[in-house]
């Protein structure tokens, strides 16, 4: 097999592994608050929102140690062992206890940092400058299919159910645990890429292509020094004008991630006005979010090379799409739906609740998210090409912190306040993004002028 085919196959396997694993974990995150509400036990007093807040808070802090973990055991084993903790978290719901639920939340936060750092490393060492864009697109598209398959299973399993029994819960989470484990073992099919003489930027890769070289790297540089250097570089980048401006946009991406991945499904499941199919709507909503993500990412991934107007129009489209969805959700969903009990909410919405409107909003949430995030990734990669690893670490840090804060206040705030927070931060983040993008355009024009 030629080196090019081998690396392409590695990217496909990486994407398939994440697709299968996040088919299980993404579905788990989407339904866990609804499941917890239906779990009647004096031994369990956990909250899905609190768990997610813990996960994202620990995820942020653990970005500092992830490179050292990968330096010791390699990216492939890092993916596998991190994936085992993802599977363990899902398995907790088969028979949950408060102590095991929150303990696995902490461990999962650490695992998430290692998993995503290892993913970036494997993507880098299996790509060239000419193929990194294509490979990133292949990985992203494959992973987004996880939203479709997992939520389709939930829709079929829970369709017509107004209450989730212990047997329903156990059947679903045993299945999801097995699916997650299958994804973990797919990572062992990734082959070591053939070494190439082309120069590589050490800031672009967390590990050299050959594992034998990593031994000498670890021997010559202590793990503490590696972590400290990465930390210092991240702090330096975080203090730049561009990164400070973009941090507001990063924060918005964390808030809306929290909303579409956990809160909105819980709201749909709490709407008694939707009848006995309310629980099944959680899965159908997740499917349509995934469709929006795949369509938006695919379209703007293709148009990115021929877009003469920069990233601003796509970001603006994403924000408008989200604002339309937020307004319709405000009208269509009862205000206490995020914090309602297992019996659901009987509060009236501003309009007669409509399943069709609710599902249109699901699609718009996914479409807007893909528009916004693809452009964030693009501008960070463009501005900090020489220091992409610490730059994306700052991105993930801010995104994870705001997601953690959002999952925490979801336990207490009514829907209207949650939507208002996202509208304000989204507006400010988009304005900040525009300022940075205009700076990029001016630099490009100045560079073109100087070259004449």
CA distance, first residue to last residue: 45 Å
> How many β-strand stretches?
0
Series of H and E elements: HHHHHHHHHHHHHH
Q: Shape, please?
A: globular
Account of the protein in words:
This protein has 452 residues and is mainly α. It has 14 helices and no strands. The protein is globular, with a radius of gyration of 22 Å. The C terminus is likely disordered.
Brief overview:
By secondary structure, the chain is mainly alpha-helical. The chain is 76% helix and 0% strand.
Please specify the SSE layout and strand pairing.
Blueprint: H1 3-38, H2 48-62, H3 66-91, H4 98-125, H5 132-158, H6 166-186, H7 211-220, H8 223-238, H9 241-270, H10 278-303, H11 312-332, H12 355-383, H13 388-409, H14 415-450
List keywords for this structure.
0% strand; 76% helix; 452 residues; mainly alpha; globular
């Amino acid at each position: 097999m030629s080196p090019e085919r081998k690396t392409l196959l590695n990217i496909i396997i990486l994407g398939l592994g994440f697709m299968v694993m996040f088919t299980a974990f993404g579905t788990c995150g989407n339904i866990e608050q609804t499941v917890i509400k239906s779990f009647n036990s004096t031994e369990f007093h956990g909250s899905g929102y609190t768990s997610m807040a813990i996960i994202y808070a620990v995820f942020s802090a653990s970005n500092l140690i992830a490179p050292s973990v990968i330096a010791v055991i390699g990216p492939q084993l890092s993916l596998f062992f991190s994936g085992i903790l993802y599977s363990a978290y899902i398995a907790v719901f088969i028979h949950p206890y408060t102590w095991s639920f929150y303990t696995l939340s902490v461990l999962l936060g650490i695992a998430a940092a290692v998993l995503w750092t290892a993913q970036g490393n494997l993507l880098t060492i299996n790509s060239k400058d000419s193929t990194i864009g294509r490979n990133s697109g292949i990985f992203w598209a494959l992973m987004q299919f996880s939203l479709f398959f997992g939520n389709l299973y939930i829709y079929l399993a829970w369709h017509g159910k107004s209450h989730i029994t212990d047997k329903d819960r156990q059947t679903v989470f045993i299945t999801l645990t097995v699916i997650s484990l299958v994804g973990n073992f797919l990572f062992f099919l990734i082959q070591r890429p053939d070494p190439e003489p082309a120069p590589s930027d050490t800031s672009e890769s967390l590990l050299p292509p050959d594992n034998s070289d990593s031994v000498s790297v670890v021997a010559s540089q202590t793990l503490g020094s590696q972590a400290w250097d990465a930390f210092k570089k991240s702090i330096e980048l975080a203090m730049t004008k561009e990164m400070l401006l973009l941090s507001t946009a990063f924060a918005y991406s964390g808030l809306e991630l929290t909303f579409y991945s956990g809160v909105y499904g819980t709201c749909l499941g709490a709407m008694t006005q939707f009848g006995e199919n309310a629980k099944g709507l959680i899965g159908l909503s997740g499917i349509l979010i995934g469709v929006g993500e795949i369509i938006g990412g695919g379209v703007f991934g293709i148009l990115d090379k021929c877009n003469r107007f920069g990233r601003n129009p796509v970001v603006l489209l994403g924000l408008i799409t989200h604002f339309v969805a937020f307004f319709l959700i405000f009208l269509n969903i009862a205000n206490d739906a995020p914090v309602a009990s297992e019996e659901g909410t009987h509060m009236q919405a501003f309009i007669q609740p409509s399943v069709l409107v609710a599902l249109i909003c699901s699609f718009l949430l996914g479409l807007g998210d893909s528009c916004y995030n693809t452009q964030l990734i693009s501008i960070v990669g463009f501005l900090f090409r020489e220091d992409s690893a610490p730059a994306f670490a700052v991105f993930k840090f801010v995104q994870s912190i705001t997601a953690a804060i959002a999952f925490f206040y979801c336990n207490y705030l009514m829907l209207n306040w949650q939507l208002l927070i996202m509208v304000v931060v989204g507006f400010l983040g988009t304005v900040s993004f525009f300022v940075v993008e205009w700076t990029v355009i001016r630099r490009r024009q100045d560079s073109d002028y100087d070259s004449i």
